[in-house]
Amino acid sequence: RCSSPHLAKPLSVSRNFAQTMEQNTTFDEFDNSKKAIKRRRDLLPIWIKIFTWIFLIFGIISIITPILGLFLEKVDLSLYGLSTTSAFSPIGIAIVLLFLFKGIVAYGLWFEKKWAVRFAIIDAIIGIVVSSYVMIIQPFIDGTRNFNIRLELVALIPYLMKMRKIQKQWEEMK
Known about the structure:
Elements: H1 5-22, H2 46-71, E1 77-79, E2 82-84, H3 90-110, H4 116-141, H5 152-172
Antiparallel strand pairs: 1-2
Helix pairs in contact: 2-3, 3-4, 4-5
């Protein structure tokens, strides 16, 4: 050991740095894995809780949409780059079913159902596949050859990663 106070100083600086790194960052509010978990909902970061409420509402609207389609000439629907003006076209039915599924997933997450995270993972994968299809393949099929970037992927990929990260803990909790 060296008794020089000048050589011991870098070691204390590195300890301070390590302690600083262990403190909360500004991004911790988006990933609440350091909080004490008392219930399943506590595993969800705030941004997923916000989207949960949004898709609970859209899930309810998706139930009403076919009824509106009977009485209205034009019903604009759009999700993941798929869009239509008819609730009863193949794309319209697919969009309504996607919103209904997202509503079911949101219900499961908010009310802490054991199956919710498994369904959320399926939901995220479906969203990534559909967005990728619309972004990469559909322009060549419909002949437009217009490339567009689907911003849904910015939320879907972290959503999938978070759901996979919490799946085991979610399913083990009561």
